[in-house]
Amino acid sequence: xxxxxxxxxxxxxxxxxxxxxxxxxxxxxxxxxxxxxxxxxxxxxxxxxxxxxxxxxxxxxxxxxxxxxxxxxxxxxxxxxxxxxxxxxxxxxxxxxxxxxxxxxxxxxxxxxxxxxxxxxxxxxxxxxxxxxxxxxxxxxxxxxxxxxxxxxxxxxxxxxxxxxxxxxxxxxxxxxxxxxxxxxxxxxxxxxxxxxxxxxxxxxxxxxxxxxxxxxxxxxxxxxxxxxxxxxxxxxxxxxxxxxxxxxxxxxxxxxxxxxxxxxxxxxxxxxxxxxxxxxxxxxxxxxxxxxxxxxxxxxxxxxxxxxxxxxxxxxxxxxxxxxxxxxxxxxxxxxxxxxxxxxxxxxxxxxxxxxxxxxxxxxxxxxxxxxxxxxxxxxxxxxxxxxxxxxxxxxxxxxxxxxxxxxxxxxxxxxxxxxxxxxxxxxxxxxxxxxxxxxxxxxxxxxxxxxxxxxxxxxxxxxxxxxxxxxxxxxxxxxxxxxxxxxxxxxxxxxxxxxxxxxxxxxxxxxxxxxxxxxxxxxxxxxxxxxxxxxxxxxxxxxxxxxxxxxxxxxxxxx
Length: 561
Ligand SMILES: [Zn+2]
Ligand SMILES: [Zn+2]
What we know:
The chain is built from 23 helices and 17 strands.
């Protein structure tokens, strides 16, 4: 049982005790939980738990019982008295311990599902102290949460919207077509897809759209707007707007909501009115055809969609101080690619040709697994020698393109690498990554990463947090110390663009940039189509405000090796 789980149970005990009007004790349990959540060390490693602040001898005993048996008798008995899912219910607005108890006694509500059903049947409003307004609040909270659960990977949104827009354009009924919303802002997960088009024949366009092969269900069909659900369960809306309003509509539907609220405030302060139909002064259209025109009319520079989160971009746009964000064409190579020599699916030549001819790169870094990691079919020294010969043979046939002889190696729990430094001297580029022991204490994990960054053979820290979107939680380490080490040893941190990693994420990249860290955007490709994930990595970089000079693989090959 980890610290967070123990703290969660102590909090639940506090709630259960409050339900029974027990005085003082709930506060003590809450304080203890707070102490535990702010600890850097694993509880199991602390000998005298009652030496910790806010943890007395009684609570210490209970924590010990949890740590050794995974259960707590006292907690189980309390739960039997009110058998409800506290964790679920307590997060809903208005749901304090007393209300949960009341709802259980009067309506037998045990979980969120029961609560939603009762709200839909308008039963909550009759409970004393709640009323119709609270009932509505509860319902919209639960429904919003459900909507958020429906989010999916950015890549699915991009692929689906690309496919739809391409088909619509082929029909020759569309002049312009762009996916707005969180896809355009390159958020790591997306909900519904909003596509905006201009068309001279909107009615015919709606026919084509609603009959596409990706459509599983037509939700609604109108003359200028239709909604469908795809085979994969994504909702896609296509809207046709006037050419003269396309910019303001695109600005409106791109969001974010928070960004748009601020932009509208600025419009009002200047005596304008801004809506999806345009920027108006006394009902006269001032701007609307392009987004650029709208921002300019408001005294701002054009703000790239990835920055529109109301995190300071508006102020920068007013002061003409927005960063010049990195672009796809700035990327000269991908430094983390797997071939058949480890767990990749493709030959080195296929990868090189795609990078050279399609992506127009100047180099790739082959970082097949080396040593240690058996599950990923890591190379041994013999494989590596064989691969090097193939790399050299291919390189001799290229001009202006180079395959870099790299390797991906494990970082062991103590921060040493999975192979010794001597064995690494044959490689020109080494990506060091964590692939196991994800649950170290914060201190141990911090030291592990710092030791790897310190190692002179290491060129790059791969997928730094190891998180997987909708999957594995990030490993926990002291960010400030790791960023500081990356700067001190002059090692970039990877922005791993693999679709379910996207690691570092946008927020952490932005914080790292403020600390002077540099980055490398890689795809961690195991197949040709993965090489295109570079666009996801660029999305992260742009959302974090990175410029070309923040990124290693915008430099020429001689500056990398
Ligand atoms: Zn890896
Ligand atoms: Zn890898």
